[in-house]
Amino acid sequence: LPTEPFDLVIFGGTGDLAVRKLLPALYHRFVDGQIPASSRIVGVAREGLDDAGYRAQVRDAVEASVPQTVAATLDAFIGMIGYRSLDARKADGWEEFAAMVGEQPDHIRVFYLSTSPELFVDICERLGSFGLNGPRSRVVLEKPIGRDLASANAINDAVGRVFDESQTYRIDHYLGKETVQNLLALRFGNALFEPLWNSSHIDHVQITVAETVGVGHRAGYYDRAGALRDMVQNHILQLVCMVAMEPPSSLSPDAVRDEKLKVLRSLRPINSSNAGQFTVRGQYRAGAAEGQGVPGYFDELGSDQSKTETFVALKAEIGNWRWAGVPFYLRTGKRLPTRVSEIVVTFRQLPHSIFDPASGPLMPNRLTLRLQPDEGVKLWLTIKHPGPGGLRLRHVPLDMSFATAFGVQQPDAYERLILDVVRGNPTLFMRRDEVEAAWNWAGPILEAWEASGETPKPYTAGTWGPSAAVALIERDGRTWAEDA
Ligand code: BG6
After folding, report:
1. Is 259 exposed, middle or buried (0-12, 13-18, 19+ CB in 10 A)?
2. What keywords sit in the KW lines (predicted)?
3. Atom of ligand 1 nearest to the CA of 341
4. Is the CB of 142 inside a 6 Å radius of any atom of ligand 1?
5. 127 near 168, Cβ under 8 Å?
6. Does ligand 1 have an atom closer than 6 angstroms to the CB of 375?
7. 3-state secondary structure of 258
8. Would you tell me how many other CB atoms lie within 10 Å of the CB of residue 482?
9. Which secondary-structure segment (H or E) carries 254?
């Protein structure tokens, strides 16, 4: 179904995210007929470009990311796009910008802040001063919201003085990924899982978000962030919430977010007293990625004075009745051997085996949810190896690849989320209290690392992080899932 006509203004319109992700995502939705033709998309940045210059950039970006474009459709899409050169910290041009946005008062207005969080406040204040914060306006805040609890609160307070919480969409694109939403369907649409979804039946959970890329030209941003701020505080904790939350009473935005919040608030604190035991930090050195030699982090940064982690492994615990004693092993990093994001739920060992040990090992059941690539779900079961030759046990997956099962390309997370904003559905966006709870847990970890004075452990690009990450889980008699 098409949305209502809208004006979408992307601050940071020439940035990497806008060009590589947001504009191609909008193109896909346009092709599918969901964006009414009178809608407008306006890129805003400081660069002194005109409409034609920006349109040429967008055309290149769409052509680079979409294998086959239809010329007439792409022309129509490009025709919706405009550009305004503005500096959030200077008044020049804002009046003309406000007049332009005000031309279509019946449109939904979305202000997408794809900029550094330091600019969020200035931009919102200017939007407010021109009255662009009326009831049909919405603001989207890209992560990271601040760099700790205090700065996140300062941003949320300032944005909150201009936009109501109901107009504020804090985006975490992991919540737009198909498999993440499928967790809701799997958990709450089947009788099979929920009765087993607790510490009596689940041994542990692993979440791996591995990337082969390095920090490349994002080193400036990344060095101030690091893996915990860039991936764990937001994306990975959101995945933890989706796995661990209680059944919400409905899919209404607050019913879901209330349950996620309870998970975040139940995370057991990690601080100076236990960070050494529960966390491992790494930083890559030169090595290989996808068969090619690649530089180390210091080379990309242009300095060897950084303590920023490009890899983190953690053992998290959720202190509530459902999850007491079930570790959640989390790991993420740049320059790992393969690009994979996966949630692996390992059930408990059987209490007793009736089989001859010669039949083969009895492995615990495992449910693997693969977010990317090859999105899908695998449920590992023990079965009898077919044929004569006695009862030989095999551990095999019931394997559902979404692409094979449904024969469709999975939409990019941003496609769904941008249209959710236009439609006014905040279910898959973070509420302010979630961001606070996530920082409340992540902040003391960062402080503990800082206080320790230690540097992250080096690892060679193209390996699974420092060996201490393996030790973190093996100490507990478990291993990182091998299909991760
Ligand atoms: C972003 C991080 O939020 O997510 C990046 O800032 C990371 O560092 C990216 O590469 C990963 O997203 P995806 O969808 O490619 O897994």
Report:
1. middle
2. Carbohydrate metabolism, Glucose metabolism, NADP, Oxidoreductase
3. 16
4. no
5. no
6. no
7. helix
8. 6
9. helix 253-266
Q: Which DSSP symbol is given to 291?
A: T
Mutate which of 221, 235, 239, 371 for ligand 1? The one with the most ligand atoms within 8 Å of its CB, which is 235
First to last CA, the chain: 37
Q: Which residue has the least CA distance to atom 8 on ligand 1?
A: 230
Instruction: Indicate which atom in ligand 1 lies nearest the CA of residue 234.
Output: 3
- The rounded Cα 477 to chain-centroid distance in angstroms is 29
Mutate to test the pocket of ligand 1, among 171, 179, 208, 230 (most ligand atoms within 8 A of CB): 230
Residues 387, 390, 394, 397, CA torsion sign: positive
Residues 235, 352, 385, 395: which is the catalytic one?
A: 235
Per-residue pLDDT of the chain in tens (484 residues, 90 and over written 9): 899 999 999 999 999 899 999 999 999 999 999 999 999 999 999 999 999 999 999 999 999 988 888 899 999 999 999 999 999 999 999 999 999 999 998 999 999 999 989 999 999 999 999 999 999 999 999 998 999 999 999 999 999 999 999 999 999 999 999 888 889 999 999 999 999 999 999 999 999 999 999 998 889 889 999 999 999 999 999 999 999 999 999 999 999 999 999 999 999 999 999 999 999 999 999 999 888 999 999 999 999 999 999 999 999 999 999 999 999 999 999 999 999 999 999 999 999 999 999 998 899 999 999 998 888 999 999 999 998 878 899 999 998 887 777 777 778 899 999 999 999 999 999 999 999 999 999 999 999 999 999 999 999 999 999 999 999 999 999 999 976 4
Q: Which residues contact 139 (CB under 8 A, 6 or more apart)?
A: 110, 111, 113, 124, 127, 133, 159, 162, 163, 167, 168, 169
For residue 430, give the DSSP letter.
B
Sign of torsion over alpha carbons 402, 407, 410, 415: negative
Residue ranges with strand state E in 118-267? 137-141, 168-170, 202-210
The torsion angles phi and psi of 283, rounded to 5 degrees, stand at -145, 130
From CA 268, how far away is CA 318, in angstroms rounded? 6
Going by alpha carbons, the residue nearest to atom 5 of ligand 1 is: 230
**235 flagged as catalytic:** yes
Closest CA to 289 of 303, 310, 314: 310
- Ligand 1 geometric centre to CA of 210 (Å): 10
Tell me phi and psi for residue 33, to 5 degrees.
80, 20
**Cβ atoms 346, 481 nearer than 8 A:** yes
CA of 364 to the centre of ligand 1 (A): 32
Tell which atom from ligand 1 comes closest to the C-alpha of 225.
6
In this structure, how many other beta carbons lie within 10 angstroms of the beta carbon of residue 121?
A: 18
- 311 C-alpha to ligand 1 centroid (Å): 13
